[in-house]
């Protein structure tokens, strides 16, 4: 087998449109979900920040053009051991839960048991909350 040139996922990039949307997005990931801010830079529509997910980074830049639709990437998943608690926090912050928490299993051998839910974030991004059982 050839050695991989890739060591893992580094970051997911979000581009809210302008400083107010940037501030809402950072608040969602930092205050609602509790992700630490690793670094922040710039001012106004040039603001940026990187938040630590524990196994990667969410980069947020204020220079976006608004909610994006379509594209090849359907969603990204955040690992958590507390799907229901995260769903409650997201709902309390006013963001929609698009798939309620549920247990399931992927049809592998042995079955890959999970608990998951989906929500929408401040930029219209689809977020899966994922717990490997």
Supply database-style keywords.
four-stranded mixed sheet; 8 strands; globular; about 130 residues; alpha/beta
Q: Biggest sheet, in brief?
A: 4 strands, mixed
Helical element count?
A: 2
* Residue share in β-strands: 35-45%
Distance between the termini: 30 Å
- Major sheet strand order: 1-4-3-2
Uncertain spans, ≥5 residues at pLDDT below 50?
none
Order of secondary-structure elements: EHEEEEHEEE
Mean residue pLDDT = 91
Radius of gyration: 16 Å
**Helix percentage range:** 10-25%
Q: In terms of structural class, how would the helical and strand content be classed? A: alpha/beta
| 3D shape | globular
Q: Got a strand count?
A: 8
Describe the model.
This protein has 133 residues and is α/β, with parallel strands linked by helices. It is built from 2 helices and 8 strands; from the N terminus they run E-H-E-E-E-E-H-E-E-E. The chain has helices at 19-32, 83-92; strands spanning 11-14, 37-41, 48-52, 57-61, 76-79, 97-106, 112-120, 126-132. A 4-stranded mixed beta sheet has the order 1-4-3-2, covered by helices on one side. The two termini are 30 Å apart.
Topology:
Layout: E1 11-14, H1 19-32, E2 37-41, E3 48-52, E4 57-61, E5 76-79, H2 83-92, E6 97-106, E7 112-120, E8 126-132
Parallel strand pairs: 1-4, 5-8
Antiparallel strand pairs: 2-3, 3-4, 6-7, 7-8
């Amino acid at each position: 087998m050839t050695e991989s040139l890739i060591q893992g996922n580094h970051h997911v990039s979000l581009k809210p449109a302008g400083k107010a949307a940037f501030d809402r997005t950072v608040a969602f990931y930092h205050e609602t979900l509790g992700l630490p801010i690793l670094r922040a830079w710039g001012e106004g529509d040039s603001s940026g920040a990187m938040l630590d997910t524990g196994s990667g980074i969410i980069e947020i830049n204020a220079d976006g053009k608004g909610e994006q639709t379509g594209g090849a990437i359907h969603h990204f998943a955040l690992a958590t051991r507390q799907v229901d608690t995260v769903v409650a926090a997201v709902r309390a912050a006013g963001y929609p839960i698009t798939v309620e928490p549920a247990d399931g299993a992927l049809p592998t051998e042995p079955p890959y048991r999970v608990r998951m839910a989906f929500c929408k974030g401040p930029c219209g991004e689809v977020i899966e909350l994922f717990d490997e059982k």
